Amino acid sequence: MGRYIVRRMLQAIPLLFIVSLIVFVLIMNMGDPLIAFAGRNGQVKGADRERLIRKLGLDQPIYVQYVVWLVGNDWMKLDLDGDGVPETNGTRRGVLRGDLGTSVVTREPVIKMVRDRLPNTLLLMVTAEIVIISFALILGIATAVFKYSIFDNVFTGLSFVGFSMPVPLLALGLIYIFGVYFKRAGLPYFPTVGMFEPAAGKTPEQLVWHLVLPVATLSIISIAAYSRFIRSNMLEVLGHDYIRTATSKGLSSRVVLFKHALKNAALPIVTLIGLDLGFLLAGALVTETIFSWPGMGRLFYDHALKSDMPVLMGVLMLISISVIFFQLLTDITYTFVDPRIRYQ
Amino acid sequence: MATLSKSITTTQVQQLAPPKVSSPGQLARRKLMKNRAAMFGLVLLGALIAYIVIGSFLFTEEYANHNDLSIRLQPPSREHPFGTDPIGRDILARTIYGGQISLIIGVTAVAISMLVGVLIGAFAGFYSGRLDSLLMRFTEAVLNIPSLFLLIIAAKYAGDKIQNFDLFGREFSGSLIVIILIIGLTSWMYLARIVRSEFLSLKEREYITAARALGVKDLQIIFRHVLPNTTAPIIVAATLGIATAILAEAYISFLGLGVRAPTATWGNMLEDATRYIDTAPQIWFFPGLLILVTVLAINFVGDGLRDALDPRTLSE
Amino acid sequence: MKRIFAPSSILAILIVTAAWLAAACAPVAAPGPAAQATQPAVAQPTSAPAATAAPSTGGNKVITISYTQEANNLNPLYTNQWFTQNLFDLFLDNALITFNDKNEPLPWIAKEIPSIENGGISADGKVITFNLRDDVKWSDGTPLTADDYVFTYEMILSDKNTVTSRDPFESEVASVVTKDPHTLVVTFNEPYAPWMTSIFSRANSSVAIPKHILQPVFEKDGTLDNAEWNRAPTVGVGPFLFKEWETGSHLTFQANPDFWMGAPKADQIFFRIVPDDASQLAAIKAGDTDIGVFISPSDVPDLEKLGTVDIPKVQSGYKESWYFNMSTDPATMGNPALQDANVRRALVMAVDRNKITQELLYGLTKPALTFWDGMAQANTDIEPIPYDPEGAKKLLDDAGWKVGSDGIREKDGVKLKLRYVTTTREVRKNTQAIVQQEWKDIGIDSELINHPSDVFFASFGDKGPIATGQYDIAEWSNSPQFPDPNAVDWLCSEIPSDANPPGGNWEFICDKDLDALFQEQARTVDAKKRIELFKQIQKIIADQVYWVSIWDDPDLWTVSKKVTGVKFSGATPFWNAYEWDKME
Fold first, then answer.
1. Which domains are seen in chain C, by residue range?
2. Neighboring chain B residues of C447 at a CB cutoff of 8 Å
3. Closest to C495 in 3D by CA, of C287, C289, C329
4. Each residue of B264-309: pLDDT tens digit?
5. B34-66+89-308 belongs to which CATH class?
6. In whole angstroms, what is the distance from residue C21 CA to residue C4 CA?
7. Chain A residue nearest residue C478, CA to CA
């Protein structure tokens, strides 16, 4: 097992390199990196532009910039005053030495920006994931047990609608109905944007209130996918001989369902959840944007519009690592769920 | 959560393996015909295609782009059944022309993703070894990036690289090509994996060994003998992929990085509609509804196809 | 079952708990009696608007401002962002001169505005002496002195700091020295007329940073780039003081009872970050925000109907403008027709700009006559270009651009087809579509192109589409060095090229007369003489149709009727925040 984990981790290294190369090349060519320094008229001109390009190392060839991002530049001399003679030591240490760099927009260490946003995103995403999985388990099992009943048909139809719903439409619809319209009609209403009311502060109650609509949005579009998946897995398992054997042995249908069927249907479900958990870190970009939820998705989007390379690279690398980590964790979980699987 | 839905379809599609060569398409077609949801989806799709085809005979594109500030933001009326937008364009006519583009994006983006996915999957699966691990590492790398994040970067990267062009007397924004390409090039990974696993199992079959022994060239084996046996999962993945591509276009447009003027799409009709959420709901309601209905119809059909083509359920 | 789900669910629970803890332990805003406001979703059937959102209760007057963009860095050296710069009016209110709601200069830390008459400006116009107030203290009690300004100047010019802009300290200023702790002397290389908006001013945010806090940091780190103060400027000077900043969520400023003009009336200013216009609109409608920024004209009718907010229109010098590509260099050249002033005039005559402002912008503004409208330098004698499609056709016919077989005008085999390029903003896209149709009616074909703003505004060196001349007509909003009239983009020396990649003259205009006038005005410290020069400048620009305004682009704000005393200035919006008050 230990060796397996080590091997998987070693395999992850080239993977992360490929990820970083692909996105680095794209990001470095997607817009004016100096836009962050621009004033209201959007322009950075004259001597300021030349100086900033030098200072940020943007005058270097792209592969040099990649190397600097990777291993830093504190081992090389830089020409900051533009006289053609390198004189100043660089200060960046590079991702390989744990330095994700500093945002061009905020001049803040990327790692700190991520640390600020991560709890918000996890709060939103983990809550949504729990809601989604609980509902999906109940509905998935129920629709499998009562397959082709009216309940199954109606729910399947509804779940398809949720599954096919464009997020902006759903989110804005919910805001309009439960935030604006309800308030106008004098009904109890949900807050529209943000994480809490300024005057009330960041209390748990406030967070719960403000979580309702975004979590509802995320859930409505995702429950369907999960529950359909659980349903089809359950159906497959329920069709097997050993279930019939168990039933004919006289075991109660509950025992058969939960002890025998669900246990065997669990493997693919765990896989799915495991794959998902890694991406939770990424947040939900569109939903976070519409609901003003200060999470990772919004961090990424805001800084993508400003071509803020260090932030974008940092966020993407962290997500990649998290995805790889949870994939590994999922595979290890297999051995608990299915004792037939052994890794060496 | 787009990744989620994709991973589900794939995992399910992957379960199709191994296909039974003996189950002919007829059986599948009969099964599909019996699937009410799939039939409903097909009828819906037919209606939508009729809407955007017949509609384009009723309204010219010039009319769809004609603006008149004096009738801006009008609610639905007899003259403008879907109302008008912020510069007085007819929303009904725009959904017709926008729908054509959205569907074209869906279909062509999937065609690209199939091309890339099948090629990569086929070569990786057939040759295994170093090529396989290289291609699969690459596939995995792209998979590790959340698809919407990748789309945003790609859209910003390529957004301004293609000029507007004329085709069939219509002017199109160069960004249309960009959006098709980036949606296609960021969605091939699951397909590549499916095809690879199919290839891995198929290439061990006797008939392939026989073909090899006869000295048939690799490429011929890949495309003439192995690939045709993997069509079932590819068809299902492609169908569902169209729905995902249409949604992807809507998301990227909503974020302001989608297809640009003068080309209307359902997605970019939604882009600025958010500020009229309660003052002029017609602006977002109709294109939004059309996206929903289209995606829904395609999902019904795709789901039906999956059941119909799934050899394991043939006995049911 | 329990065992099956154990690993993942335990993990999920762990994460959720961690997230909750992290969220709950994060700094909490607004102390005080907020109990009654903790449940925002409580019904208000009587719907008295004043009662729905009441974050202010006795002694805790919180004014909430929604910000559609987050501040980037609270050190003035490191930001050029409008949203951030406004904050300096609150916690770094040490500009030598500030501007009121009529955009008139007010002596602020400088006791009086230096002029040649009062001896503050030397006879040759090169030396300006500022006498500073001696009763102003940083929030930790250290007096604010001329040394702070000199330190700021040194930090701006230090190669070790990645400051946003050195303009004009690098190019114009010879030295900044102290004569005594409260006398600051700035010497210029040449007389520099726009000093008021650029030397330790709020208009370009060259306000002073605290030397006693930041000098030790600079000596220790070798740079100010990573100073903690940049993110948490706990020592400030002004009516409000920095309290906390939670990225992506909010920024708070607490009243400073020791403010040198007396304690402010409000207790706290709370900036809530809302990422998009739709969210802001919803928050304004729901009464969750007291002051809203950059309101879109299309939202105004709806907000007016609401009746709970005022919508001030603030002149900030910005004009939505058309720029024509007049390059003669084949590499950057546009359609040759644009070289002809009559063609440019015809393009404008074909468009009903008043209709655009009346309908699309709800009559909130109108086309500006000159680049300096609303300022003392504006030349009001300029004739506006009328809406006259027939006249436009005649001008084009006379210029040799005749209608071809396909209905599009052409001359010498060149079609009159123009690339009309702008950013992706909704109102600009709509304007493009309207203009395209009107041009088509007089036989001008156009191709509409939109770029995201970081692409649109990229320089020649970064292959920006405008800077490299990949357009015929471009639309964006620009302003002079407001409230100073200075503008440099029409100088011949600013034309971008391989030799001058950061150049800002993206129209590639090089008019010798205009160039001379622009250079002269920048050296003319005498305000009256300078106005005359500007009137001549505007005459040339109007005659030659070098620049045309589509509309005057004032800033639209919303202010809740519960908040009083708000007087926005176009240059320094929050200059009188100490007078803001909130009614119960």
1. 319-552 (3.10.105.10)
2. 164, 171
3. C329
4. 899 888 887 777 877 788 888 899 999 999 999 999 999 889 888 8
5. mainly alpha
6. 27
7. A41
> Quick one: residue C205, left, alpha or beta (phi over 0 = left, psi -120 to 50 = alpha)?
left
pLDDT above 70 covers what percent of chain C?
Answer: 89
Least Cα distance to A198 among C53, C292, C561 occurs for: C53
Closest by Cβ to B159, choosing from C276, C430, C452: C452
Predicted confidence (pLDDT) per residue in C100-126, tens digit: 999 999 999 999 999 999 999 999 999
Give the CA dihedral B113, B116, B121, B124, nearest 10 degrees. -160
**Residue whose C-alpha is closest to residue B182's, from B267, B102, B103, B108:** B108
Q: Residue A199 has what pLDDT?
A: 58
Q: Is the peptide bond before B18 cis (omega within 30 degrees of 0)?
A: yes
What is the rounded CA–CA span in Å between residue A222 and residue A165? 10
Q: Do B312 and A27 touch (CB under 8 A)?
A: no
pLDDT band of residue C418 (cuts 50, 70, 90) is very high
Which residue type, as a one-letter code, is found at position A140? G
Q: Which of C358, C421, C424, C440 to mutate to test the interface with B (most CBs of B within 10 A)?
A: C424
How many angstroms separate the CA atoms of B83 and A152, rounded?
38
Measured between beta carbons, which residues in chain A are less than 8 angstroms from residue B152?
285, 300-301, 304
Set of chain B residues whose Cβ sits within 8 Å of the Cβ of A30: 153, 156-157, 159
Instruction: Please tell me which of the candidates A31, A181, A320 has its beta carbon nearest to residue B156.
Output: A31
Residue A335: how many CB atoms within 10 A of its CB?
15
- Residue C14's identity, in one-letter code, is L
Residue-wise pLDDT for C45-70, tens only, equals 333 333 333 344 446 899 999 998 88
Tell which A residues from 5 to 24 touch C, by Cβ distance under 8 Å. Answer: none
Measured between alpha carbons, how far is A52 from A34 in angstroms, rounded to an integer?
A: 8
**pLDDT for residue A251:** 76
Domain boundaries, chain B: 34-66+89-308
Q: How many beta-carbon contacts under 8 Å exist across B and C? A: 65
Determine the pLDDT at residue C275. 65
Domains of chain A, CATH where assigned:
2-97 (no CATH), 110-337 (1.10.3720.10)
* Long-range contact set of residues A24-28: C-beta below 8 Å, sequence gap at least 24: A24/A62, A24/A66, A24/A69, A24/A309, A24/A313, A25/A62, A26/B153, A26/B154, A26/B157, A27/A307, A27/A309, A27/A312, A27/A313, A27/B153, A27/B157, A28/A62, A28/A65, A28/A309
Q: How many CB pairs under 8 A join A and B?
A: 145
